[in-house]
Every structure is written in structure tokens, then in C-alpha cells.
Amino acid sequence: MNTKNPLTINCIGLGHWGPNLVRAIASHLSARVGTVCDLNESRLALVSRNIPSINQTSRDALATIQDPSADAVVIATPTNTHYTLVKAALLAGKHVLVEKPLTLDMNEACELAELALKVDKILAVGHVFLFNKGVQFIRNLIETGELGAINYIFSTRTNLGPIRTDCNALWDLASHDLSIINYWLGTTPISVTARGQAFLNPLIEDVVVANFTYPENVLACVHASWLNPSKVRQITVVGEKKMVIFDDMNLDAPVRIFLRTIDIQDQPEYVDSYGTFRMNILQGDVVIPHLTGGQPVANQINHFIDCIQTGAQPINSAEIAVDVIRGLAAADRSMQSQSLLTMIREN
Length: 347
Description:
Blueprint: E1 7-12, H1 18-26, E2 31-37, H2 41-50, E3 56-58, H3 61-66, E4 72-75, H4 82-91, E5 95-99, H5 106-119, E6 123-126, H6 133-143, E7 150-160, H7 169-185, E8 191-197, E9 207-214, E10 218-225, E11 227-239, E12 243-247, E13 255-258, E14 261-264, E15 279-282, E16 286-287, H8 296-310, H9 318-336, E17 342-343
């Protein structure tokens, strides 16, 4: 890597996720942290103490964006600010990495994606699980056919908080799952039915269950909640040949492959009076692959910098983010219509 002329990356937003991004940039050989920006003086002071290589601090987001010394801007602010900040950064000629979701509005997301192409700048979105080695390993299992045809996917992402006020649990949590499932299947959902309930804030759903249908009749069920006693980050993929569980909370065995399935035998000419079919449950071993690689946040920053240097399109591009938003917006419409089946795109 070139270390003579490192990229200067400014960072806006030092709340829950921002400091992790700043730390990853500061650790990269081909980049340096320029200005970090936040409205909260105590957050600025804390992050500056923990990451001494920070160049300077600011409480002015627009000035941080327009800084002529910056090559790129990382934005980790509330979602309802993304559109304004990302647009300003692209128009200022900066490459941008913004936290997910890109926006809360489909038209705004499409506009930003088109603007990035027009000004020829990288616009990447923080769908950080696409850089998780377990997620990438399972994508390879699916692509190579090791699991067989995929029957269905079931995802659970729950915790007791943190509660957000700028978007509901679907947009906050299920955006991760939808980006992962789209990535695994290499396509986007056709339709969705969704149901949500608002227990904590009457205007914002904190519990959501959404059922997405993908091509080849693959069902993907997503359960997202801020109101649950257990922190769960688990996705089960059921294939015709094998099944696999991705458990992000299991640090020792995040991926487990189950060599189990049900064999449906050919139906004989005569079926007994109960109309049963002959099925054999095939039990096999559980395989736990050894996974190596860096942390997802660092991998995402590395990929962002590589794309800036090479001109390659990121795997977490604005177009990918728009696909996720299209699915989330359709699920929102379904919730608002008493779980009505809502089309996302043509099959």
C-alpha cells in the first residue's frame, strides 16, 4: 500500500458507532483521520483522548465536509440527517461512507446514488455485516451449491434497547438482515408481508416480523425487536442438502453447518388410510469451520479505502443500499395496510 500520500478522511458523528470507524481509519496505513465532528463537546474530548492521531475537532458539520484537505467523509449521524450531509459531501467532491440505512426515503436514496455516479465518487453504506467472515463464508456455501437449493431463511435480531427515535426497529435492525440475505441469494425480494407493534413509543414500531419472498419461492422471515430480554443475532439457512446457522453472538463458533435433512421418498401407488408420505430424517454431523480474518468494521474501512484508490465499486454500494431501502419501504407499507401482501418488484 502507498503510505507516502495517505488519504485524509474526516468523520462526522461520534455517538454509538462513529468512534469505531475513527479508530479503524487511524489504524490504516494508507489513511489518516483529519477532522472529527460532533455537536457534543464531551464526545469530541473523549474520542480525541482515546485516539491521539486525530488532527483536529469541530462542531461544524458543513465546514468538516467542505474541508479542502479531506479526500473523503465518514458520516455516522442519525438517519434523518443522512440525505443532507451525504448530498453536501458529494457536491463538495468527497468520497462518502455513511452509516446504514442510507436514508429513510426511497426517492432521496435514489437521488444520492445517481449523484454519486454523476460526480464520479464512491458512495458506500455501512452494511457492515457484508464484511463479516462468517457471512462471507455462508455466501460461498450457497454459491457453490453445497447447501442445495435454499428453502427458507429465518433471522432473529433482538435486544433490550437501544431505543431509537429516528426510525423503527425494522429500519434499524432488519436492514442488516435484508442486506445479508440479498447478498447471500444474489438477488432482491419480490414481495413482503409485515406486522409491527409500537409498545414503547406509539409512533415507532419496536417489534416487527416481516416475511419476504424471493425468486425460486425462497421465504425469508425476519424478526426484529428492541423489546426483548435477550440479545440475539442469529440467522438460519435451510437448504435441501444441508442447513447452516450464523450466530454472531457465538464468538467461538459463529457458523455451524448441519449435515441433516429430510428425504422425501417417492410416493408409492398405494398410500395408507392416513394419507402419509414416507420421509426419512437423515442425521449427520455438525461441522464448525475455522474462520479467520479481521474485524468487520476494519474490513469495511479497508474496502472503502481500496475502492477510492482503485475506482472499484464497493460491495456495499449505494445501489445495494437502495435495494435494501426498497424492501424496507415495502414492509412499512405492508404494516400500514394491516399486513397486506405488498409487491417490491416484478418477478
